[in-house]
Design goal:
single chain; 394 residues; alpha/beta; nine-stranded mixed sheet; six-stranded mixed sheet; binds adenosine-5'-triphosphate; binds magnesium ion
Length: 394
Protein backbone atom coordinates (compact mmCIF):
# COMPACT_ATOMS: atom_id res chain seq x y z
CA UNK A 1 0.00 0.00 0.00
CA UNK A 2 1.48 3.29 -0.91
CA UNK A 3 -1.58 5.51 -1.30
CA UNK A 4 -4.33 6.30 1.12
CA UNK A 5 -7.44 8.47 1.23
CA UNK A 6 -6.80 11.22 3.75
CA UNK A 7 -9.99 12.82 5.08
CA UNK A 8 -10.24 16.23 6.73
CA UNK A 9 -13.23 16.66 9.02
CA UNK A 10 -14.01 20.29 8.40
CA UNK A 11 -16.87 21.93 10.23
CA UNK A 12 -16.95 19.45 13.06
CA UNK A 13 -13.48 20.50 14.15
CA UNK A 14 -15.11 23.50 15.76
CA UNK A 15 -17.27 21.37 18.03
CA UNK A 16 -14.65 20.73 20.69
CA UNK A 17 -16.83 19.11 23.34
CA UNK A 18 -18.55 16.76 20.94
CA UNK A 19 -15.52 15.97 18.87
CA UNK A 20 -15.32 12.28 19.61
CA UNK A 21 -19.02 11.79 19.04
CA UNK A 22 -18.78 13.54 15.68
CA UNK A 23 -15.72 11.60 14.59
CA UNK A 24 -17.17 8.26 15.69
CA UNK A 25 -20.43 8.97 13.87
CA UNK A 26 -18.56 9.89 10.70
CA UNK A 27 -16.38 6.80 11.06
CA UNK A 28 -19.45 4.54 11.33
CA UNK A 29 -21.12 6.27 8.38
CA UNK A 30 -18.06 5.83 6.17
CA UNK A 31 -17.74 2.22 7.29
CA UNK A 32 -21.40 1.48 6.50
CA UNK A 33 -21.17 3.02 3.05
CA UNK A 34 -17.99 1.10 2.18
CA UNK A 35 -19.13 -2.23 3.59
CA UNK A 36 -18.82 -3.92 0.18
CA UNK A 37 -15.30 -2.69 -0.49
CA UNK A 38 -11.93 -4.01 0.49
CA UNK A 39 -10.90 -1.11 2.69
CA UNK A 40 -9.29 -0.49 6.05
CA UNK A 41 -10.49 2.62 7.83
CA UNK A 42 -8.77 4.27 10.76
CA UNK A 43 -9.05 7.63 12.49
CA UNK A 44 -7.44 10.01 14.90
CA UNK A 45 -8.55 13.39 16.19
CA UNK A 46 -7.34 15.21 13.10
CA UNK A 47 -7.83 12.86 10.18
CA UNK A 48 -9.51 9.74 8.90
CA UNK A 49 -7.54 7.32 6.73
CA UNK A 50 -8.88 4.81 4.21
CA UNK A 51 -6.63 2.14 2.76
CA UNK A 52 -8.08 0.95 -0.54
CA UNK A 53 -7.49 -1.26 -3.57
CA UNK A 54 -6.54 0.74 -6.67
CA UNK A 55 -9.25 -0.75 -8.87
CA UNK A 56 -11.93 0.34 -6.38
CA UNK A 57 -10.75 3.92 -5.94
CA UNK A 58 -13.18 5.61 -8.35
CA UNK A 59 -16.20 3.88 -6.80
CA UNK A 60 -15.04 4.70 -3.30
CA UNK A 61 -14.55 8.34 -4.22
CA UNK A 62 -18.05 8.65 -5.61
CA UNK A 63 -19.40 7.18 -2.38
CA UNK A 64 -17.48 9.34 0.04
CA UNK A 65 -18.37 12.40 -2.03
CA UNK A 66 -21.82 11.98 -0.49
CA UNK A 67 -20.87 11.44 3.13
CA UNK A 68 -21.62 14.55 5.19
CA UNK A 69 -18.99 15.71 7.66
CA UNK A 70 -16.14 15.42 5.17
CA UNK A 71 -14.79 18.82 4.36
CA UNK A 72 -12.01 17.80 2.03
CA UNK A 73 -10.05 14.70 1.13
CA UNK A 74 -6.87 13.82 -0.68
CA UNK A 75 -5.47 10.77 -2.38
CA UNK A 76 -2.13 10.81 -0.62
CA UNK A 77 1.10 8.87 -0.88
CA UNK A 78 2.13 7.52 2.45
CA UNK A 79 5.78 7.35 3.56
CA UNK A 80 7.78 6.98 6.74
CA UNK A 81 8.38 10.16 8.65
CA UNK A 82 11.98 10.90 7.75
CA UNK A 83 13.33 13.48 5.34
CA UNK A 84 15.01 11.03 2.95
CA UNK A 85 11.89 8.93 2.43
CA UNK A 86 9.81 12.05 1.97
CA UNK A 87 12.27 13.57 -0.53
CA UNK A 88 12.57 10.38 -2.57
CA UNK A 89 8.83 10.00 -2.79
CA UNK A 90 8.28 13.62 -3.83
CA UNK A 91 10.76 13.20 -6.68
CA UNK A 92 9.26 9.85 -7.70
CA UNK A 93 5.75 11.36 -7.82
CA UNK A 94 6.79 14.48 -9.73
CA UNK A 95 8.71 12.46 -12.31
CA UNK A 96 5.32 11.19 -13.52
CA UNK A 97 3.84 14.67 -13.85
CA UNK A 98 4.12 17.23 -16.64
CA UNK A 99 4.70 20.72 -15.29
CA UNK A 100 7.09 23.61 -15.43
CA UNK A 101 6.46 25.36 -12.11
CA UNK A 102 5.77 24.00 -8.66
CA UNK A 103 5.54 24.89 -5.01
CA UNK A 104 5.93 22.74 -1.88
CA UNK A 105 3.71 23.38 1.14
CA UNK A 106 4.36 21.54 4.37
CA UNK A 107 2.27 21.05 7.49
CA UNK A 108 4.17 19.63 10.41
CA UNK A 109 1.97 18.37 13.22
CA UNK A 110 4.83 16.22 14.59
CA UNK A 111 6.67 18.89 16.48
CA UNK A 112 9.70 16.73 17.34
CA UNK A 113 10.64 16.45 13.68
CA UNK A 114 14.10 18.06 13.33
CA UNK A 115 13.15 20.66 10.69
CA UNK A 116 10.23 23.06 10.85
CA UNK A 117 7.73 23.26 8.00
CA UNK A 118 9.49 26.10 6.17
CA UNK A 119 12.76 24.20 6.26
CA UNK A 120 11.13 21.02 5.03
CA UNK A 121 9.48 22.85 2.09
CA UNK A 122 12.75 24.53 1.18
CA UNK A 123 14.68 21.28 1.38
CA UNK A 124 12.11 19.40 -0.74
CA UNK A 125 12.05 22.23 -3.29
CA UNK A 126 15.83 21.96 -3.61
CA UNK A 127 15.66 18.19 -4.11
CA UNK A 128 13.08 18.60 -6.88
CA UNK A 129 15.13 21.27 -8.67
CA UNK A 130 18.17 19.02 -8.50
CA UNK A 131 16.44 15.88 -9.79
CA UNK A 132 13.95 17.16 -12.36
CA UNK A 133 15.06 19.17 -15.38
CA UNK A 134 13.57 22.42 -16.63
CA UNK A 135 11.32 23.18 -13.69
CA UNK A 136 11.25 26.17 -11.38
CA UNK A 137 9.54 27.32 -8.22
CA UNK A 138 6.54 29.65 -8.43
CA UNK A 139 5.05 30.46 -5.05
CA UNK A 140 2.11 32.44 -6.44
CA UNK A 141 0.67 30.42 -9.28
CA UNK A 142 2.41 27.05 -9.57
CA UNK A 143 1.33 24.38 -12.07
CA UNK A 144 1.64 21.85 -9.29
CA UNK A 145 1.18 22.31 -5.56
CA UNK A 146 2.98 19.59 -3.63
CA UNK A 147 1.39 19.27 -0.19
CA UNK A 148 3.24 17.44 2.55
CA UNK A 149 1.89 16.54 5.98
CA UNK A 150 4.48 15.42 8.48
CA UNK A 151 2.82 13.39 11.22
CA UNK A 152 4.38 11.25 13.92
CA UNK A 153 3.75 7.78 12.49
CA UNK A 154 3.58 8.50 8.81
CA UNK A 155 3.84 11.40 6.44
CA UNK A 156 1.57 12.13 3.52
CA UNK A 157 2.23 13.70 0.13
CA UNK A 158 -0.51 14.78 -2.26
CA UNK A 159 -1.07 16.98 -5.28
CA UNK A 160 -4.88 16.95 -5.27
CA UNK A 161 -7.70 18.46 -3.22
CA UNK A 162 -11.15 16.90 -3.45
CA UNK A 163 -14.01 18.90 -1.95
CA UNK A 164 -16.21 16.77 0.31
CA UNK A 165 -19.95 17.03 0.93
CA UNK A 166 -19.47 19.33 3.94
CA UNK A 167 -22.05 19.56 6.72
CA UNK A 168 -22.23 17.34 9.81
CA UNK A 169 -22.28 13.53 9.86
CA UNK A 170 -25.81 12.12 9.58
CA UNK A 171 -26.81 10.91 13.04
CA UNK A 172 -25.16 13.71 14.99
CA UNK A 173 -28.70 15.03 15.33
CA UNK A 174 -31.66 12.82 16.19
CA UNK A 175 -34.47 11.87 13.88
CA UNK A 176 -36.53 14.23 11.72
CA UNK A 177 -39.52 13.25 9.57
CA UNK A 178 -39.53 14.54 6.02
CA UNK A 179 -42.80 15.07 4.18
CA UNK A 180 -41.72 13.70 0.83
CA UNK A 181 -43.93 14.32 -2.17
CA UNK A 182 -42.90 13.57 -5.72
CA UNK A 183 -42.05 17.21 -6.38
CA UNK A 184 -38.81 19.13 -6.71
CA UNK A 185 -38.70 20.86 -3.34
CA UNK A 186 -39.11 18.16 -0.74
CA UNK A 187 -36.13 15.96 -1.80
CA UNK A 188 -33.95 19.07 -1.68
CA UNK A 189 -35.32 19.86 1.79
CA UNK A 190 -34.44 16.31 2.87
CA UNK A 191 -30.92 16.61 1.50
CA UNK A 192 -30.34 19.91 3.31
CA UNK A 193 -31.70 18.49 6.56
CA UNK A 194 -29.38 15.49 6.37
CA UNK A 195 -26.51 17.83 5.69
CA UNK A 196 -27.03 19.32 9.15
CA UNK A 197 -26.69 15.81 10.60
CA UNK A 198 -30.39 15.00 10.96
CA UNK A 199 -31.25 11.34 10.72
CA UNK A 200 -34.01 11.26 8.15
CA UNK A 201 -37.20 9.25 7.76
CA UNK A 202 -39.66 10.08 4.99
CA UNK A 203 -43.45 10.15 4.90
CA UNK A 204 -45.47 10.00 1.70
CA UNK A 205 -49.22 10.62 1.61
CA UNK A 206 -50.88 8.77 -1.22
CA UNK A 207 -54.46 8.74 -2.39
CA UNK A 208 -54.89 5.62 -4.50
CA UNK A 209 -56.83 5.34 -6.86
CA UNK A 210 -56.67 9.11 -7.37
CA UNK A 211 -52.90 8.83 -7.44
CA UNK A 212 -51.13 6.03 -9.26
CA UNK A 213 -48.58 3.42 -8.33
CA UNK A 214 -46.19 5.23 -10.66
CA UNK A 215 -46.46 8.24 -8.36
CA UNK A 216 -45.50 6.05 -5.42
CA UNK A 217 -42.66 4.54 -7.38
CA UNK A 218 -41.36 8.01 -8.09
CA UNK A 219 -41.27 8.77 -4.37
CA UNK A 220 -39.46 5.48 -3.76
CA UNK A 221 -36.94 6.44 -6.41
CA UNK A 222 -36.41 9.84 -4.77
CA UNK A 223 -35.97 8.16 -1.40
CA UNK A 224 -33.31 5.95 -2.94
CA UNK A 225 -31.48 9.00 -4.25
CA UNK A 226 -31.59 10.59 -0.79
CA UNK A 227 -30.38 7.34 0.77
CA UNK A 228 -27.09 7.85 -1.09
CA UNK A 229 -26.32 10.38 1.65
CA UNK A 230 -27.00 8.04 4.54
CA UNK A 231 -27.16 4.37 5.36
CA UNK A 232 -30.87 3.85 4.66
CA UNK A 233 -34.14 5.76 4.92
CA UNK A 234 -37.41 4.41 6.27
CA UNK A 235 -40.22 5.53 4.02
CA UNK A 236 -43.67 5.55 5.61
CA UNK A 237 -46.51 5.42 3.12
CA UNK A 238 -49.79 6.82 4.47
CA UNK A 239 -53.11 5.90 2.91
CA UNK A 240 -54.64 9.35 2.66
CA UNK A 241 -57.58 8.44 0.40
CA UNK A 242 -60.40 8.36 2.97
CA UNK A 243 -59.35 11.71 4.47
CA UNK A 244 -58.96 13.35 1.07
CA UNK A 245 -62.37 12.14 -0.03
CA UNK A 246 -64.01 13.24 3.21
CA UNK A 247 -62.50 16.71 2.90
CA UNK A 248 -63.76 17.15 -0.64
CA UNK A 249 -67.17 15.80 0.24
CA UNK A 250 -67.70 17.88 3.37
CA UNK A 251 -65.65 21.06 3.27
CA UNK A 252 -65.90 24.25 1.33
CA UNK A 253 -63.73 23.95 -1.73
CA UNK A 254 -61.51 26.99 -1.22
CA UNK A 255 -60.46 25.57 2.19
CA UNK A 256 -59.80 22.01 0.98
CA UNK A 257 -56.05 22.47 0.60
CA UNK A 258 -55.71 24.26 3.94
CA UNK A 259 -57.60 21.48 5.69
CA UNK A 260 -55.81 18.73 3.82
CA UNK A 261 -52.50 20.14 4.97
CA UNK A 262 -53.72 20.48 8.55
CA UNK A 263 -54.59 16.77 8.39
CA UNK A 264 -51.12 15.97 7.04
CA UNK A 265 -49.50 17.89 9.89
CA UNK A 266 -51.66 16.10 12.46
CA UNK A 267 -50.59 12.75 11.05
CA UNK A 268 -46.97 13.90 10.91
CA UNK A 269 -47.11 14.82 14.59
CA UNK A 270 -48.27 11.33 15.48
CA UNK A 271 -45.55 9.72 13.36
CA UNK A 272 -42.87 11.98 14.86
CA UNK A 273 -43.97 11.02 18.38
CA UNK A 274 -44.29 7.29 17.75
CA UNK A 275 -40.86 7.08 16.08
CA UNK A 276 -38.88 9.17 18.56
CA UNK A 277 -38.49 12.01 16.11
CA UNK A 278 -38.09 15.64 17.05
CA UNK A 279 -39.07 17.70 14.01
CA UNK A 280 -41.16 17.73 10.87
CA UNK A 281 -39.26 18.70 7.70
CA UNK A 282 -40.89 19.75 4.47
CA UNK A 283 -40.33 21.50 1.16
CA UNK A 284 -42.55 24.51 1.73
CA UNK A 285 -41.25 27.69 0.18
CA UNK A 286 -42.72 31.06 1.08
CA UNK A 287 -45.14 32.37 -1.52
CA UNK A 288 -44.79 29.43 -3.91
CA UNK A 289 -48.44 28.37 -3.87
CA UNK A 290 -51.64 29.36 -2.03
CA UNK A 291 -50.89 27.03 0.90
CA UNK A 292 -47.45 28.60 1.38
CA UNK A 293 -48.33 32.22 2.02
CA UNK A 294 -47.38 33.17 5.56
CA UNK A 295 -51.04 33.37 6.54
CA UNK A 296 -51.69 29.88 5.15
CA UNK A 297 -48.61 28.49 6.82
CA UNK A 298 -49.70 29.92 10.16
CA UNK A 299 -53.19 28.42 9.93
CA UNK A 300 -51.78 25.05 8.84
CA UNK A 301 -48.97 25.01 11.39
CA UNK A 302 -51.29 25.79 14.31
CA UNK A 303 -52.37 22.14 14.60
CA UNK A 304 -49.01 21.10 16.06
CA UNK A 305 -46.32 22.20 18.48
CA UNK A 306 -43.75 19.93 16.88
CA UNK A 307 -41.12 22.19 15.30
CA UNK A 308 -41.34 22.35 11.52
CA UNK A 309 -38.09 22.86 9.62
CA UNK A 310 -38.43 24.25 6.11
CA UNK A 311 -34.95 24.19 4.63
CA UNK A 312 -36.00 25.79 1.32
CA UNK A 313 -38.45 28.30 2.80
CA UNK A 314 -36.49 31.29 1.54
CA UNK A 315 -34.97 29.85 -1.62
CA UNK A 316 -36.02 30.84 -5.12
CA UNK A 317 -37.34 27.98 -7.22
CA UNK A 318 -34.27 28.24 -9.46
CA UNK A 319 -31.97 27.90 -6.48
CA UNK A 320 -33.90 24.81 -5.40
CA UNK A 321 -33.66 23.37 -8.92
CA UNK A 322 -29.90 23.90 -8.92
CA UNK A 323 -29.57 21.74 -5.82
CA UNK A 324 -32.04 19.18 -7.20
CA UNK A 325 -29.84 18.79 -10.26
CA UNK A 326 -26.72 18.54 -8.16
CA UNK A 327 -28.17 15.74 -6.03
CA UNK A 328 -29.68 14.04 -9.09
CA UNK A 329 -33.32 14.19 -7.98
CA UNK A 330 -34.49 16.71 -10.56
CA UNK A 331 -35.07 14.35 -13.48
CA UNK A 332 -37.12 12.03 -11.29
CA UNK A 333 -39.08 14.91 -9.73
CA UNK A 334 -40.25 16.25 -13.07
CA UNK A 335 -41.75 12.94 -14.20
CA UNK A 336 -45.41 13.72 -14.83
CA UNK A 337 -47.21 11.52 -12.28
CA UNK A 338 -49.88 13.26 -10.27
CA UNK A 339 -49.61 14.00 -6.58
CA UNK A 340 -52.48 13.85 -4.10
CA UNK A 341 -52.44 17.65 -3.83
CA UNK A 342 -52.63 18.26 -7.56
CA UNK A 343 -55.43 15.77 -8.09
CA UNK A 344 -57.72 17.55 -5.68
CA UNK A 345 -56.60 21.10 -6.17
CA UNK A 346 -59.61 23.48 -6.18
CA UNK A 347 -60.01 26.28 -8.71
CA UNK A 348 -59.61 29.04 -6.13
CA UNK A 349 -57.76 27.90 -3.03
CA UNK A 350 -57.84 30.38 -0.12
CA UNK A 351 -54.69 32.47 -0.14
CA UNK A 352 -55.43 34.05 3.23
CA UNK A 353 -57.42 31.41 5.09
CA UNK A 354 -58.89 32.17 8.51
CA UNK A 355 -58.24 29.81 11.39
CA UNK A 356 -61.81 29.85 12.68
CA UNK A 357 -63.19 29.01 9.24
CA UNK A 358 -60.72 26.14 8.83
CA UNK A 359 -61.72 24.73 12.21
CA UNK A 360 -65.43 25.06 11.46
CA UNK A 361 -65.05 23.36 8.09
CA UNK A 362 -62.96 20.43 9.28
CA UNK A 363 -65.35 19.74 12.14
CA UNK A 364 -67.92 18.70 9.56
CA UNK A 365 -66.49 15.17 9.61
CA UNK A 366 -64.93 12.87 12.19
CA UNK A 367 -61.33 13.37 11.18
CA UNK A 368 -59.84 12.12 14.44
CA UNK A 369 -60.92 8.53 13.79
CA UNK A 370 -59.70 8.74 10.23
CA UNK A 371 -56.33 10.06 11.31
CA UNK A 372 -55.92 7.21 13.78
CA UNK A 373 -56.86 4.76 11.03
CA UNK A 374 -54.36 6.32 8.62
CA UNK A 375 -51.56 6.10 11.20
CA UNK A 376 -52.46 2.51 12.11
CA UNK A 377 -52.27 1.35 8.51
CA UNK A 378 -48.96 2.92 7.54
CA UNK A 379 -46.76 0.83 5.29
CA UNK A 380 -43.05 1.24 6.07
CA UNK A 381 -40.34 0.43 3.55
CA UNK A 382 -36.63 0.40 4.33
CA UNK A 383 -34.94 2.05 1.37
CA UNK A 384 -31.26 1.78 0.56
CA UNK A 385 -29.46 3.52 -2.24
CA UNK A 386 -28.44 0.40 -4.06
CA UNK A 387 -31.15 -2.11 -3.28
CA UNK A 388 -34.60 -2.02 -4.74
CA UNK A 389 -36.57 -3.66 -1.95
CA UNK A 390 -39.92 -2.38 -3.05
CA UNK A 391 -40.44 -4.10 -6.41
CA UNK A 392 -42.86 -6.49 -4.77
CA UNK A 393 -45.05 -3.64 -3.55
CA UNK A 394 -45.94 -2.61 -7.05
P1 LIG B 1 -42.43 19.68 -3.79
O1 LIG B 1 -42.56 20.74 -2.77
O2 LIG B 1 -41.92 18.41 -3.24
O3 LIG B 1 -41.76 20.14 -5.02
P2 LIG B 1 -44.92 20.53 -4.38
O4 LIG B 1 -44.28 21.86 -4.44
O5 LIG B 1 -45.90 20.12 -5.39
O6 LIG B 1 -43.87 19.41 -4.28
P3 LIG B 1 -46.56 21.39 -2.32
O7 LIG B 1 -47.94 21.08 -2.68
O8 LIG B 1 -46.02 22.73 -2.54
O9 LIG B 1 -45.60 20.35 -2.97
O10 LIG B 1 -46.37 20.97 -0.82
C1 LIG B 1 -45.40 21.54 0.01
C2 LIG B 1 -44.70 20.48 0.81
O11 LIG B 1 -45.63 19.62 1.48
C3 LIG B 1 -43.88 19.55 -0.03
O12 LIG B 1 -42.61 20.09 -0.30
C4 LIG B 1 -43.80 18.34 0.84
O13 LIG B 1 -42.83 18.50 1.86
C5 LIG B 1 -45.17 18.31 1.49
N1 LIG B 1 -46.09 17.45 0.71
C6 LIG B 1 -46.95 17.82 -0.25
N2 LIG B 1 -47.61 16.75 -0.74
C7 LIG B 1 -47.14 15.67 -0.08
C8 LIG B 1 -47.41 14.26 -0.13
N3 LIG B 1 -48.27 13.74 -0.98
N4 LIG B 1 -46.72 13.46 0.70
C9 LIG B 1 -45.81 13.97 1.55
N5 LIG B 1 -45.52 15.26 1.65
C10 LIG B 1 -46.18 16.12 0.85
MG1 LIG C 1 -43.37 23.06 -3.37
Amino acid sequence: MDRIILIKYGELSTKKANRNFFINTLYNNVKNKLINYDVKISKDRARMYIEFRDNELEDIKSIIDRVFGIHMYHIAYIVNTNIDDISNKVVEILKNETFSTFKVETKRSYKSFPQDSMEISRKLGGVVLKNIDNVSVDVHNPDILVQVEVRENHSYIYLNNYTGAGGYPVGTQPKGMLMLSGGIDSPVAGYLAMKRGIQLEAVYFEAIPHTSLEARNKVLELTKKLAAYTNYINLHVVNFTPIQEAIYKNCRSDYCITIMRRMMYRIMEKIVKSHNGYVIINGESVGQVASQTLTSMAVINSVTNVPVIRPVACFDKLEIIDIARKIDTYETSILPYEDCCTVFVPKHPAINPKLDVAIREEEKFDYQTMIDEAVDTINTIKVREEVNEFKNLL
